[in-house]
Structure prediction request, 1127 residues.
Amino acid sequence: MSIVALGIIIAIKVVVILAIILGIGAYLTLVERKVAAHIQRRPGPMVVGWHGLLQPLADGIKLLTKEDILPSSANFLLYNLAIVMALVPASLVFAVVPFGPEIHVFGYDIKPILTDVNIGIIMAFAFGSLAVYGVALSGWASNSKYALIGALRKAGIIISYEVVITFAALGPIMLAKSLSTYDIVMAQIHQKVWYIFLQPISFVVFVFALLAETGRVPFDIQEAEAELVTGFTVEYGGMKFGLFPLVEWYVEVLSLSSILTVLYLGGWSPINIPFVGFVDPFFFLGPWSGFIWFIIKVTILFLLVLWLHWTLPRYRIDQITTIAWKVMLPLALFNILITAFIAPLLRG
Amino acid sequence: MQASEKTLNEIKLRIPYVEVKKDKLISIVYVQKELLINTLKTIKEDFGFKLFIDHSVIDTLEAQNRFEAFYILYNVDTKERIVVKTKTEHSLPSIERLWFAGKWAEREAYDMFGIHYEGHEHLVRAFMWDTYSYFPLRKDFPLQGYENVELPSLNETVFGDNLTGTMNYRRTHTYVPTLKDLEYTEKNRIKKKAQVVLNWGPLHPGTHGTMWFLFDLEGERVVQTDVILGQLHRGVEKLAEHEPYQQFLVYTDRMDYISALCSNQAWTVAVERLLGIEDIVPLKAKYIRTMMSELQRINSHLLWLGTYALDLGALTIFLYAFKEREKIMDIIEGITGARLTISYTRIGGVRMDLPEGALEVIESFIKFFPKELKDWEKILSRNRIWLKRNKDVGVLTKEDIFFYGLTGAVARGSGVFYDIRKLEPYDAYGMVDFDVPLGENGDCYDRYLVRVEEMRQSVRIIEQCVQKLKTMSKNEPFMAESQDPKKLRLTLDGIGLKVPAGEVYSSGENPRGELGFYINSKGGLKPYRVKIRPGSFYNLCVYPHLMENRYVADAVTILASLDPVVGEIDR
Amino acid sequence: MIKKVFEKPLNFLETILFLDFIKGMSITIRHAFTKTITTHYPYEKLTPPKRFRGFFGHKTVNGLEPQPVFDEWVDRMKIEPRPGKSRCVVCYLCKKACPVPDLFEIDGGKLENGKKVVSVFNMNLMLCTFCGLCVDACPVDCLFQSDIHETASFSRKDSILNLEKLEAIGKSWQDRREHEPDRIWIDDDARQALWRENKLNLKRVENA
Prediction:
């Protein structure tokens, strides 16, 4: 392909990904509020637009028009840099997520993935680790006791669960014999089995690590209103305050759910009967059905995360780190041991 | 029961220098100030009066030995209560070594009367700020205080308000504390030993009301804590000396505002005991009062469960509990007319009979409620996260209960059988059948289980009351008729109700602990001294002990399981 | 009499299969598909019950006064009853019964025929606790509490009720709600959103 065509394709991919992520991120706030409200037997936002559909717009306008504050003894550079360091790495994970199978458009073969590097999974986890900067910087720069305690707690959790999530992900990587995200999905399609059936322990560990990294119940000790009001974001106001939950709770959940779909649920493949084949009710859409299946799987995972959020109580900080190092890490290592026996049995 | 003649005679044999007195309502032991500590020690250890109920002071305005101090103690095994009294001019020995609850009661007596306690570890004011210069409950301090500050906000005229006379605000005000006063109070309250002193409160979504905690933190571990109270202090005990007995009912609503009817009932029963008319209160009124009080108990425990789960992260239980609470408030609004500050009982009965349809609605509520409770227990009781957060957190032994004067569900969670409804029955509690749940370990999990089980027992009591009320006709009286209207005037509005001279201590089982009223009357329309013994105040005094060497995250759990409400603590 | 409370700890199978989480989640998902229980204020409102303790009013003389009490008090205090105006006999019993000393300001004026009528009756509701002791004290069923509870205003003047406002509230109450039966509440249908799950089945009212 010529350089110009390549450039145009990459530009289109970047714009599509950014628009979808940030646009969906805002509307996911409405989805969460509606689901939480119905679990609690009340209707949720109903006044702005039909059944509240314009609520995110109203929230966005409200947050953007608030006063931009800076505490008098806060460090100006770090205070504003923390927001950038929170938003950018979370969005970058989407660079290595494959959304569907290879499609042929206007005579070009396009893989719907921004960059198909052969170390895709490592890139994803590396970007996740950068998230700790946003937390630590904002807690320090706010110059307040509550923010400091919240930031230290959150940073501790993220660092512990980074280790856990990497070891848990080693299981599917061993089965697929590759680190590239596209290749892992192709391996599941060729072997005709979703790795969730072969790796149940590792799936559960990964789900818990997902909840911990993104700060969702039962690991949301950071947002424990009863103790620390809002933890490390307590000195922020307006849209800067609105950006932290947007990044943590929605963009990061979407990105880690996408990685989870890729690793365990077969990416864009339709319903799977283990070792036999695939059943696709949307076969009439041709290659575009893969995108629909990817979206369905990510949606189901997001709703599962919401369901857990509004049911369970939360752990204490020392219990969270105890669970990470004493329970989850040994389980992940045990899983690797078992996988070492299974992997040679799977051909191709 | 008051301590029997036998016990008093044994005490007089053992300690010859005291004087004893007993009448129908109260048993008193008089002692000199110098021999007070030895007397209390003997009564506590040798005669078994281990549970500390209350301590305060009366200003008798006599020339010599102006202040009369009293200590109320209870013996859980023989169910006897005794009052030890002494007289002093301006100082007393501190009973901190005998009962820790005495430390807080002495801070309050110092704040209100100016009595100095020798041997007290850290004598600071309980409710007022440390640079306040008066002692409000003395008889020479006027009811309005010294109004010599002009506040600009009271003197604005917007919209051309020209209200005249008593329909307008007074232009001057008493002294209001400044930021410097509060900072001085904060620095004086705790001596810093570790890294950081964190202020938890007074405005915070996690403390149940406006309490101000100071944590001395080493990383995430708490080394010592202390509490600054008084943000909601309204001077109810001073107001009681200027209000007739029936009119004071309105103030009892606003102390424990979550279970207002139980506080109303406790005050009404106390005055009825002082008048001696407990037997002529009609049966219908007793059953109605019991039923409404148990509805309020479920109401209060639902609020406790909702906020407890909310503080620990299970956010939906809060809204489920409030759904049931909304139904109870609808019932109470239909019967009495108000939802929060109820004032439904009158001295001698209740204000109005039940309306049509009330009993059917209550029946349909209690038929559905136990199923909901079972569902919520499925979410919480055996959840591993809930167990991990609550087991072995905030353990209280039986000796702790007596040493800190704890009552209510906190005492029952540790296995002490202390329930005023069974030990000293009032109203219809002697005529209904119910169990008292007791825990074993005394940790937060046991207190949670005890309160949930109490809700079920309340449903049982309400069922029996509803069955009994269905058999009573509409024409049965709901208010007592006085035999001699010239001597004792019992009306719905309480004008002209004269109470003979005497004193009584009577308590009721509030959902939060034991709410007791010590009324000292010298005859006439208004009482001479009313001391309110709030359950939440003494339940809170164990908090610094429980928080030593714990994480900040446990602060929320322990505070929620003690279930304080600030209106009662600060009065 | 004593009931020991106790819960079994989790066994091994429940721990690895997360049965405690699954049971809890089944409860919440069942609630998510049940109807909501809220009323959308201010588009839908509930009617307060007859005994509701809202703002005060004076009932007017219209032939339905409690006899013979009213005639006795009119004779004793030498009052001239005027139809359509307040029933107040200036006995000061409400002021005596109120816990707040400065709330009521009552005065009566003399007419030419030697009889009295009430001329000034101010209630400072900024001090009121809405306890109802004054309503209990009134001997001629004049002072009462209506169902007005939406009372936000911009000026302190609106919290002072004088005789005209009291009579207006009283007349409106006597037209709207005097004939309601003494039932726990009157708007069964509006309350069904909350009470539907209890399967509440009250007898219908005769004249709603």
